[in-house]
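Shipment paperwork, digital attachment
Item: protein structure file
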Amino acid sequence: MAVRMGIDIGGTFTDLALFDEESGHVRVTKAASTPGEPHRAVNDVIGRAAIDNSTIRDLVHGTTVATNALLERKHQLPGLITTRGFSDMVFIQRMNRKHHYDLQWDKPIPFAERRHCLEVDERCNYKGEVIEPLDEEGAREAARRLRDEGLSDIAVCFLFSYVNPANELRMREIIADEYPGARVSLSHEVYPRWREYDRMSTTLADAFLKTLVGEYIEDVANGLAPIGVDANFLMMKSNGGLVDHRAASAKPVDLLVSGPVGGVLSALYFGSLVGRQNLISMDMGGTSFDVSLIEGGEANRTAEFEIEWGLPVYAPMVDVRTIGAGGGSVAWIDKGGLLRVGPRSAGANPGPACYRRGGTEATVTDANVALGRINPDSFFGGEMQLDAAAARTALGRLGDELDMTPEEVATAVVDLVDFNMVNAIRLVSIDRGLDPRDFTLVSFGGACSLHANALARIIGARDVLVPVYQGVFSAFGLMTADMRVDESVTTSFRSDLVDFERATELVRRLRDTALQRIATEGYTGTPVLEPTVEMRYSGQNYGTSVVLSLSDWAFGPENLAETIDRFESEHRRLYGYDIPGEIVELVLFTMTAVGVNEDPGLAPLPPGGSASPIDERPVYFSEAGWVPTRIYRREQLPPGAELVGPAVIEEAMSTTLVHPGEQVDVDDYGNLLIHVAPT
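Attachment content:
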């Protein structure tokens, strides 16, 4: 027996999904998260799976610890060592402003204090030629100063180090001599690209996370052996690939959206299973709402993540947008007397008022309980009894201030959080020129399927896919992930003046680096290599990435012509025009190495009869008021069953709400395809 397991730690719950390769069975469960002691939540949820822990071969973990740390800034800021004259760069930042006419606006605070930003004498030019050697005595003095200040995380960012990293490498050796316990982030390793502010900001973020993420991973890893787990412990990276846990802390900035990416991978898997390639994945848990777009069977990717406006962190990642909208999002009244929902969350403790853990503020979960959409007696598979009276009391307190009934407040809370989530969906679709009516919404997470159909009606989508295992969907996606590394190097070639020998040398070096790194990160097979290049017309400031044409890993004139054709075709698709004959610049070569792992193979369910409701209760719909509604158990819905709303479909870890007039089809695997009623 060999088990592959995925564990996703969220703000409220820790989810587990496992696949037994011999039997083909999938098992899922969840446990309460334990902030500050991640190993407890991991051990608790493994214990709830009730298996022989020695059979776990692969354990894949996704987490939001890196993102949360950057947002909360509770950890000590790192030190910075940079080229003389450039320590103010992280404070000057960019020339653009968030609000053009806001005289009170301040630039974001970088991840370094000015007194800990030190300069040393050294200089390379844009060709990588050393103009001024590293002043080693000055470098030693900088290392000693940071040591004496007690800063164990250090970022090093020298000019043009992405072309010639010799001075940065020597600086690391000097820090190791003077300060053996320090953890060092070098900019040419973290983000080897041009634009100095972006590279410095990203390197500082990586250094800020070095110790924190390292200790987090160590805490989880050390907790496995005492419970008999001797598995390959892998971490999910933001790019959708896996890395051995021992290598993950070397570049923690790669883990920024580690947790939410699992849901996107699951959406890809189930989209392929049901034959749909255009998807919008939506994950609503207890704290946040994550949304991502999949077009043509490919997840949208990006390299930029903003901690806050104007404070970028660059790393290859699946593009996931997150807002504070979850089941625990708190409803409150602002100074103007208007009802608001989120982004603050009640979390797991004390949680919503209906949890009976001391929480008194009304949340989205309280609103759904008060509207009859959640059964208080079957929440969390019946292991957790909710207090409907406490939910109504919390909503009633808001109603007293707003002169509204508890039902009206609950409906308003649900409507507000729905529109907040719709705005996030628009960011990944309409704002990019894509019509959401061409996409199927994929709903998952503990709370999303209570809201998904309303979101579809607002945004204009026609169908909602509610997959099996939706309550632990991100954890399931972790089991489907491949190993993946992305290596890149900045270039400066023009289409009318290309050094083909130099270009070939760079491509082959990238190939070798990618192969070496994916092997270091734990992959033992033969990876698939995907070379790409970022190109732009002369005079443009930002580029477009296309597949790089190569012949036996060589780049020649014919490859250049073919690559330019691909660029101009993609430019036409994105912007509606191209400029034939215009000089094109090649500014970034990237090599992706993918180590393919075997996906869990879901078996079709045995055919059954018709769907039969287990109960009926009144449920409140804004369009119809209180309506007698049939209640179904998800596991009792046979393949081929058809339902017409209103209906509530309950399962251990989630609930699906079907509005009046909507049709539900159950496929061969138990997935629900909901055809949304037009508005």
